[in-house]
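Can anyone check this?
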Amino acid sequence: MNELKGYLQTDWQQHKAALLSGNYRPQPVLKVSIPKAGGGQRELGIPTVLDRLIQQAIHQVLSPIFEEHFSDSSYGFRPNRSAGQAVQKARVYMEESHRWVVDIDLEKFFDNVDHDILMSRIARHVQDKAVLKLIRAYLVAGISDNEQVNKRTMGTPQGGPLSPLLSNIILTDLDNELEHRGHKFCRYADDCNIYVKSERGGQRVLQSVTTFLETTLKLKVNQKKSDVGRPWQRKFLGYSVCTRKQNIRLRIAPAVQMRFKKDVKHTLRSARGWSIHRTVDKLNLKLRGWITYFRHINVKNVLLDLDGWLRRHLRKILWRQWKRVYTRIKRLIALGIDESRAATSAVNGRGAWFNSGASHMNQALPKKYFDSIGLVSLIDYYQRLKYQT
């Protein structure tokens, strides 16, 4: 930020003049690929620091203008709205007997937005031609990939402050169409679930909404991922639900639990050779953010299971770090295991994973030990979050 401040002090006037005259040309965005949660790669377009500043200024002016036109069923990238509110509303619809969900998945949404359609939606509420010209310039700014700049004729690359607002602007047409038809739905950016009372009705809705998206907005629906099913068979923003008809409870989707374990294992592999305290500090960053996002769940047993699974992996790391028989005996005795049992356990010939789940390691390294070194307990942190709300 200090570098930007110094740059603006010397060069801002020429950029300001270019903006006011309509001659400003944004720099190409930098292409960056990151792993997607469900597999594959997500392509981001990172603007320069100056362009991020200008995009943020545009966002701050346009956001209040469009906010009053956005749907109450739209929750993504909006002030005072969140994914938690979306899943809570979805649960209400299920309680009202809308127990079939039409799960709409847009294929590479941010890459496939039609610029002309988007600009026409912006122009409904913005008449300033200089602003419209500047937004168009950001849409067509090239993408720098390995020092080669490629032209862009469609899409609003993720990575800049303006992209989330633009996504909500173009998808407001979808919201209006669904409201006009009287549907119950929740949308978070390009993730949209529609709640209906029968499978047959859901199939009709899926077909008609697909037609609307592909003909009116020129967006492509992913036929492989879009489907009609029971809410407990699908996931929405990482959440799923139990199968009961009343007092429906939110839970963490099984696929998300599997990804969480995979991410934790990756973190532990990258932490080989670290002290247990350093490893715990690294894990805590992930654990706090993860459980804060899923603080709306009502099914808590999974947190107890994940806590136990995580502590077992940390016991495995410690068992491997102790390495020698003498060291293992010494450590076990220091942790309260009697000398005879410590000696027997240290030479049992079993692997680290077996020992990490065995009674001698559970007794030596119980939950209170990991509490003492600062490991975040998912269930305890969840309970604190619930108490605060």
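Reply from J.R.: I decoded it. The mean pLDDT is 93.
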